[in-house]
From TrEMBL:
InterPro entries: PdxA_fam. It is an enzyme of class 1 (oxidoreductase). It comes from the Bacteria. It holds the Pfam family PdxA. This is 4-hydroxythreonine-4-phosphate dehydrogenase PdxA. Gene3D superfamilies: Isopropylmalate Dehydrogenase. Its EC number is 1.1.1.262. It comes from Nisaea acidiphila. One of its GO terms (molecular function) is NAD binding. Keywords: Metal-binding, NAD, Oxidoreductase. The keyword Isomerase does not apply.
Amino acid sequence: MAHRPLIALALGDPAGIGNEVAVRALSDAETFEAADWLIVGDRRLWALGEEQAGAACAIADFDPGRFERVAFLDLAHAELGAVTVGQSSVACGTVALQNFRTALRLAADGMADAVCFTPFNKQSMRLGDPDYVDEIGFIQRSIETEVAGSEFNVLDEVWNARVTSHVPLAKVAELITPERIERSIRLTHETMQAAGFPNPRIGVAALNPHAGDGGNFGTEDKEIIAPAVRAAAQKQYRVSGPIPSDTVYVRALKGEFDAVLTMYHDQGQIAIKLIGFDRGVTLIGGYPFWIATPAHGTAYDIAGKGIADPGATIAAFRLAARLSGQSRRGVAVDPATRLRAVRDIVFDAEAVV
Ligand SMILES: NC(=O)C1=CN([C@@H]2O[C@H](COP(=O)(O)OP(=O)(O)OC[C@H]3O[C@@H](n4cnc5c(N)ncnc54)[C@H](O)[C@@H]3O)[C@@H](O)[C@H]2O)C=CC1
Ligand SMILES: NCC(=O)COP(=O)(O)O
């Protein structure tokens, strides 16, 4: 039976639109009611978000004895003078990394059902941590797992999955291997099943124009992708392809596929953002808890102006609440156990900062 989940919300890059859209999203009654919220960040930067949004949320500081529906876990860690709205910096990356790591550990330790985050700026994250590549690598390090999850871009109409993600375009072709494709098909199937699709239909995008056009425009589709799709189909996955990538989303939107597996980041993201930029969610699957964020980024060009659209953040928060509320795990639901769990959150948060 569904229960109201506890979501650890890691505030993202403070120089971007993240705090503003988080304030707006939690001011939306239906979104707020969908979960209990533990907001992880620096209270002074949250106040900046309230100012930018022109709205205020009455959220008490976290107190283990009084936690009911929402609390702010104030890590009070930002070097405020070094945060400039609209600019990447070490300070912004460091704050975002610490917020994210704390939220991940809360969930990994079973003290939150899911993690949401507002947009990170990967340039700032790299400045804050030279080893930072992307969220997947950081999650692996933070929760000490070898498991590499994957990003899924979610709209009501269709999902997008990726064989490669945050890699230079020049490297994509060499990373398209049968093993990666089969693994991505399996992860897409398992993640979508966990999200409520009993037997998802997956269309696999081709890499080259017109799926290589008989070998005229590259051989990967014929020699690598087609055999991998056949092998996956033999294992009973409902999969077809390679399908020319300029029309695979047209077919998906007509109802032929529940998801499209693309070969590289922008191949799917362009389609998804054209279909629903204001409600697109990036969902990270493959871990014991759901992780969700809006599909858009930090939008430095409009940060601080009070004009950011909160639609995708609302969609991300609601999706995480729905999936974790009906999910495979679930933290303590009775108040006494939850109180104990939330007390531990504080100790854990102190330990990781
Ligand atoms: N959820 C996350 O953590 C994500 C983080 N990123 C990161 O964000 C940074 C900037 O990425 P960009 O490619 O420039 O994409 P972006 O999404 O930040 O901006 C692209 C364009 O969309 C507009 N835009 C974005 N969100 C909007 C909103 N809510 N309302 C109105 N307009 C909006 C921006 O003003 C800009 O013109 C990068 O470091 C990237 O890695 C990108 C996507 C998702
Ligand atoms: N992994 C979260 C994230 O960065 C989402 O944006 P994208 O770069 O994967 O499009």
